[in-house]
Specification:
Blueprint (H helix, E strand, L loop, with lengths): L2 H5 L4 E4 L11 E2 L5 E2 L4 H12 L3 E5 L5 H10 L3 E3 L5 H11 L7 E5 L5 H6 L2 E4 L5 H4 L4 E2 L8 H12 L3 H9 L1
Parallel strand pairs: 1-4, 1-6, 4-5, 6-7, 7-8
Antiparallel strand pairs: 2-3
Helix pairs in contact: 2-7
Length: about 170
Amino acid sequence: MDLAARCHPIQLILSDVDGVLTDGGVIFDNQGIEIKRFHIRDGLGIKLWQKAGHHFGLITGRASHIVQLRAKELGVELVRQGIDDKLPAVKHIATQLKLRSEEVCYVGDDLPDLPVLRWAGLAAVVTDGCEELHGAAHYITKAAGGRGALREIVEVILKAQGRWLDIVQKYAG
């Protein structure tokens, strides 16, 4: 199945956080407060995806207050943190939304993401993700994690669905 055919039915994008929405670095200040850097284009990509009427969610192995803050800022309600085994959580979300695996895109970067990538209708991996994931990927981004990779995936899917030009026109005036 080609990429466009995989993109066409996608209704839900679920993404890992560290290494996908960030560059994978975790910084702690002298008070032990965690700091993460998010790319602004990824945030707009999430908002555009939602405005197109689709669902977006985050599934991460770590638990972080910053992730909750960023999700709230972007209007992301599907947030699962501290999840070691991601596949059952992903399947549960899909079931709640009455979606089949073919309608789910998962974006990952490291080994805990592999089972979900093998299950998802569209498996997307950031270009700097671990080598083992590249074999399971239907799409490997040009952008690195934390550098607009998620926005790239949103554009690829919306273009394949024939919806990207309508979105761009809203900004073109």
